[in-house]
Design goal:
By secondary structure, the chain is an alpha/beta fold. 33% of the residues lie in helices and 21% in strands. Helix 1 crosses helix 2 and helix 2 packs across helix 4. The chain is globular. It starts with 8 loop residues before the first strand and ends in a 7-residue tail after the last strand.
Length: 196
């Protein structure tokens, strides 16, 4: 584990690859960070990003980079993932650790249009979005934009927002997609996106 209890990240070295999983919102500090929607310059790439997410990432960034240095693994061998707040943090880490790869689930919008276009240009980035998950439309105000060409969307309504946003819902849909199951849950690339 990297980071303290407030910002925990699971890091594993497997087969020459650094696998990093960022956890979602669990603490009061996380909730406060989620609400700090001021846009600030992205120190790791194009555009402006959500200040609360950036501050959470920067809280453990140096420690995370030291792990990679200790293992002597190039950024091209970093595989990042996360859910919810963790997805936003994995996205920022991907900018920072280029050319790392990231596959995220249930992510809120991380930045403005320039940030979204930079994410769309990253070959190793995919953001899985349940169209009935309200978290994926947040922040709802301001110039926040989802990286539409990097989205893999599906619709799976479980009857309430917390189940629609649950990692279990995302994993079940990903498994159905990988197995080719014909179900109401269907992944497809998104050209329209979530520009709420």
């Amino acid at each position: 584990w990297v980071g303290d209890a407030a910002v925990a990240v699971c890091v594993r070295y497997v087969g020459g690859v650094v696998a990093v999983a960022f956890r979602g919102t669990q603490t009061t500090e996380d909730a406060i960070a989620n609400m700090d929607t001021t846009l600030v310059d992205n120190p790791y790439g194009a555009g402006r990003v959500h200040r609360g997410f950036l501050e959470r990432y920067q809280a453990f960034r140096d420690e995370l980079r030291l792990v990679g240095a200790d293992w002597r693994v190039s950024p091209s061998k970093w595989w990042l993932t996360g859910h919810s707040l963790g997805a936003a943090l994995a996205t920022l880490a991907m900018f920072d650790l280029r050319p790392a790869r990231a596959t995220v689930f249930g992510s809120p919008k991380v930045g403005d249009g320039a940030c979204a276009r930079a994410l769309e240009a990253c070959a190793g980035f995919a953001s899985h979005v349940n169209l009935v998950d309200p978290v994926c439309t947040m922040p709802a105000r301001g110039p926040y934009v989802a990286p539409v060409r990097a989205l893999v969307v599906f619709a799976c309504d479980k009857g309430c927002w917390s189940r629609n946003h649950s990692m279990a819902t995302y994993l079940a849909a990903a498994c159905e997609n990988a197995c080719g199951a014909a179900a109401a849950t269907r992944f497809e690339p998104c050209e329209r996106g979530l520009r709420a």
